[in-house]
Automatic annotation (TrEMBL):
Residues 322-378 form the PucR C-terminal helix-turn-helix domain. This is PucR C-terminal helix-turn-helix domain-containing protein. Transmembrane segments: none annotated. InterPro entries: CdaR-like_regulators, Homeodomain-like_sf, PucR_C-HTH_dom, PucR_C-HTH_sf. The lineage of its organism: Bacteria, Bacillati, Actinomycetota, Actinomycetes, Streptosporangiales. It comes from the Bacteria.
Length: 404
């Protein structure tokens, strides 16, 4: 049995509740306030916006041109405020989910069929509105590919595997036929991070056609790779300059595919390589490729081998600073004079420690086989430590259990 007044009256009555639910769902989001400031003047406030859009869903017609223009303006203003497109999408999806939950929670059983149809119409309207918003985001800069918002928008679209040609055409930008994907991290910069990022961003923007997203804590840069060798040189130069500014370490990995559609796969490979780069004790401040770290990548996916490598290091815990000695020796490219200086010990002390490592483990770190095995073991141990720290960070971000 259908409720008196039917679906239109029901949706009209939900306006205040939907507006309140959206506010509650987004209240803690870091981009909520800037987006609220942006959207408020365009739609006349949250309740007015909710009522208008619910009425359009009930009517079942297409979005009027005037409303599409408002959503386009929302995209323009978001771009000019520097709100990343991915963040804008998160807020958008959160608002839609809150609105749908609220309507379904209060719907009488007699309206379920009509509400299901209306939900489908709402999804189509939301898709059209989102397209208009992205169009405005792309049109906002009016500065070609040198615009920061446009660089970020195109990079994020390509990374997501979505077609970016429409956005590029709207902004009058020609995309490269393929890109080298660089994943880069410069950890531990502290208060100097903003200043270093400003310099790094200027360096990237001076290179024709480079697209990027993120910051120095987690940067993804796309270098046009019509000439792959040139792209590799530019990526290596950027990482080297960044390491000079920040005084290292800078961890970086790169990958390239044959066309734009391969960018998500290239990013996935570069991210996997970067995980290993952060673990190897003798990592240099340069981009690494997967084919340079095949042994380490194989270790990454073999828990059994990692356990056996951990057993190689365990005897060293009977001595003092023996693991650290191996790490520094590898980081110094096996230069014992330099390693002794870095460890603040006499060279004879370094020789004594290496002999102690040999006696405890049965593996000679002075041999090619021995140092290779210790390098693999140290890399495996550091990978395990990074994974453990990552799990702890993830657990720390979770809400407390219900029992709390």
């Amino acid at each position: 049995m259908t409720t008196a007044g039917g679906l239109p009256d029901f949706l009209a009555a939900q306006g205040p509740r939907v507006a309140a639910a959206i506010g509650e769902a987004l209240g803690g989001h870091p981009a909520h306030q800037p987006i609220r400031r942006t959207a408020g003047p365009l739609f006349g406030g949250r309740e007015e916006t909710a009522a208008r859009l619910l009425a359009l869903v009930a009517a079942g017609g297409p979005l009027p041109a005037d409303d599409l223009a408002r959503f386009r303006d929302l995209g323009v203003m978001a771009a000019r405020q520097g709100i990343p497109l991915a963040v804008l999408s998160e807020v958008w999806d959160g608002a839609l989910a809150a609105a749908a939950r609220t309507c379904w929670a209060g719907a009488p059983a007699g309206l379920f069929t009509e509400l299901a149809e209306a939900t489908g119409r709402a999804a189509r309207l939301a898709g059209r509105a989102r397209e208009a918003c992205i169009q405005g985001y792309a049109d906002a800069p009016r500065e070609g590919v040198r615009s920061r918002p446009l660089r970020r928008l195109l990079a994020e679209t390509l990374i997501d595997g979505a077609p970016a040609e429409v956005i590029a055409d709207a902004a009058g930008v020609a995309l490269a036929p393929r890109y080298l994907v660089l994943r880069c991290e410069a950890p531990g910069l502290g208060a100097a991070a903003a200043a270093h990022w400003a310099r790094a961003r200027e360096h990237l923007e001076a290179i024709d056609g480079v697209l990027y997203s993120g910051d120095l804590a987690e940067l993804v840069a796309l270098f046009p790779a019509g000439d792959p060798v040139r792209a590799e040189v530019l990526a290596a130069e950027f990482v080297a300059v960044l390491a000079t500014w920040t005084r290292g370490p800078v961890h970086a990995a790169e990958s390239c595919r044959a066309d734009l559609g391969g960018i998500p796969d290239a990013l996935e490979e570069a991210s996997r390589v970067l995980t290993v780069v952060k673990a190897i004790p003798d990592a240099e401040d340069r981009p690494y490729r997967a084919d340079e770290l095949l042994v380490e990548l194989a270790i990454l996916g073999q828990p059994g081998i990692r356990e056996r490598l951990a057993a190689v290091l365990s005897p060293l815990d009977a001595g003092t600073d023996l693991r650290r000695t191996l790490e520094v020796l590898l980081a110094c490219n096996l230069d014992r004079e330099r390693a002794a200086r870095e460890l603040w010990i006499h060279r004879r002390t370094l020789h004594y420690r290496l002999d102690r490592i040999r006696d405890l483990s049965g593996i000679d770190p002075s041999s090619a086989r021995g140092i290779q095995l210790f390098r693999a073991a140290l890399t495996s141990a550091r990978l395990t430590s990074l994974e453990r720290d990552g799990r702890r960070a993830e657990e720390a971000s979770l809400p407390p259990p219900l029992s709390a």
